[in-house]
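Please produce the structure of this protein holding manganese (II) ion.
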Amino acid sequence: MIIIMNRDVTESQIETVVSRIRDFGLDANISRGTERTVIGAIGDERKLDPEMFDSLPGVEYSMHIVKQYKIVSRESHPLDTVIDIRGIPLGGRQVQIIAGPCSVETQEQMDASAQYVVDAGCRLMRGGAFKPRTSPYAFQGKGVEGLDMFERAAGKHNLPIVTELMDVRMLDTFLERGVDVIQIGTRNMQNFDLLKEVGKINTPVILKRGMSATISEWLMSAEYVAAGGNHNIIFCERGIRTFETAYRNVLDVTAIPVLKRETHLPVIIDPSHAGGKAWMVPALSRAAIAAGADGLLVEMHPNPVDAWCDADQALNPSELKDLMGVLKQIAQAIGRDL
Ligand code: PEP
Ligand code: MN
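Below is the modeled complex.
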């Protein structure tokens, strides 16, 4: 951390900063320039925060010089991490497409969905039993009954399941039911207590980007999970909120190469919640895979017009199958498989 002092700083103000640094077990290096005095904190600067210095007399501003995320950073782990989901690798050469409905509705809908997911060539299935809805009067999900429907449907095909955890009180139920991948949704990206709890287990976690979260905030949220011991984290970009209203969110494709550089963990894209319309999903999916995403989380419904949630953005089964064919070619063109 470096602390830049005001032009007219006094010796006693410098001393106060230096002793605060020493109180935290770090050393201080004072550099007196012609315009400014800069104090460098030497040691593990993650113990320090700009807030500790910015309010002291004589301080102009202070800033970290090393990244605040450690375990998830590529600096700490140069090679790509490949996450094993019941034998299915995510983050390696093979691109994984996780498909399924926005929400679990009925056993018939889930049975049909699972069959279509397999027919399209996808190896993992998504579906929400607990739904984060803007309106408290909208369908909130089938809850535990929905998890059971999902299990039965996916179990027939041995498909690992991905489903959203909103409430930490449901974590044990998720573990008892054998949920293979826990999704932390956009609205919970900074629910730090939830992140700490999923950090204590080993189940892979898909961490969706908060709708207005910076890349650095997102990485820090992943660090919360990792700090608890769970390093099986998958980043999922799902579109961010901007001034644009022509589509549901703006798919931040730039986040793919940036995250790939910053972290060793896999990065997937949710084109469905980004575009918000089924017709946009193929183009966004193609862009995502071409840009280096390790997979997609995509909504597909056996009969989209009847979907109880996000009907507009669900692909139908044949659209999913067609998309898989195109994505296979793109994957091959960039040296990957699907
Ligand atoms: C979802 O995947 O069903 C979902 C609710 O996504 P998000 O958290 O990205 O809005
Ligand atoms: Mn949805």
